[in-house]
């Protein structure tokens, strides 16, 4: 019977993850996100192409859906071991691989923050603050992204006293790291988008 419940957790988390605010806004604003900027339907590309307000709205949505997935799994299946971590991880994968967009969504970082907040609010809050500080200091989002997805699985496992949260979260961690490999190439080449550019009105990217 546990297999059925775990399957429901996976299905529910994945469908929540498939909701994509960047897609909704891009349709309203008539902005093509698949072939501009980073080419992803996520918060960072929304920031690049549509500005700060759009980036914040998309980020809040992506954080919220993963946070909700974790809390719902914990509430509906309180006796199911690590259902919350599984729901959060699968929600992140739903964001990255939405079925109705030919499995081409965002890079999953905002949803990763949401899952961390759901698993442990203080862990998620500490990670969020650290990301903002790193982003301000380096002017790049990706530096904070990499540090977060490497640290959160380890800390989540230690706090739970089990290796399973770490194992579960390492799946989206590996995918997010792979999805961000091009960002470091652009940093090396001096072409990576800088956060400060969005506040200077330089958010429409055509390359």
Structural class: mainly alpha
**Overall 3D form:** globular
Proportion of beta-strand residues: under 5%
Largest sheet: none
- Name the helicity range: over 70%
Low-confidence stretches: none
End-to-end Cα distance, whole Å, is: 51 Å
Supply the number of structural domains: 1
Number of strands: 0
**Mean pLDDT, as a whole number?**
87
Query: How are helices and strands ordered from N to C?
Result: HHHHHHHHHHH
Radius of gyration: 17 Å
- Number of H/I helices: 11
Give an overview in words.
This protein has helices spanning 2-18, 21-29, 43-50, 52-76, 83-96, 109-119, 121-138, 141-160, 164-179, 181-189, 195-199. It has 207 residues and is an all-alpha fold. It is built from 11 helices and no strands. Helix content is 73%, strand content 0%. It has one domain (2-199).
Itemize the secondary structure elements and their pairings.
Layout: H1 2-18, H2 21-29, H3 43-50, H4 52-76, H5 83-96, H6 109-119, H7 121-138, H8 141-160, H9 164-179, H10 181-189, H11 195-199
Entry keywords:
single chain, 207 residues, mainly alpha, 0% strand, globular
């Amino acid at each position: 019977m546990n297999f059925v419940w775990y399957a429901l957790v996976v299905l529910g988390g994945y469908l929540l993850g498939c909701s994509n605010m960047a897609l909704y806004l891009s349709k309203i604003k008539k902005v093509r996100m698949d072939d501009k900027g980073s080419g992803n339907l996520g918060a960072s590309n929304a920031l690049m192409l549509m500005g700060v307000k759009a980036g914040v709205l998309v980020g809040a949505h992506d954080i919220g859906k993963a946070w909700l997935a974790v809390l719902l799994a914990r509430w509906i299946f309180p006796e199911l071991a690590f259902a919350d971590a599984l729901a959060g991880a699968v929600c992140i994968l739903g964001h990255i691989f939405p079925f109705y967009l030919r499995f081409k969504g965002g890079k999953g970082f905002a949803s990763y923050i949401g899952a961390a907040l759901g698993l442990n609010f203080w862990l998620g809050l500490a990670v969020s603050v650290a990301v903002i500080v790193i982003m301000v200091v380096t002017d790049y989002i990706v530096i904070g992204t990499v540090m977060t997805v490497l640290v959160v699985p380890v800390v989540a496992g230690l706090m739970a006293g089990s290796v399973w949260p770490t194992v579960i979260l390492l799946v989206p961690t590996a995918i997010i790291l792979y999805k961000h490999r091009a960002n470091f190439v652009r940093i090396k080449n001096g072409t990576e988008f800088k956060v400060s550019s969005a506040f200077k009105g330089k958010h429409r990217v055509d390359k």
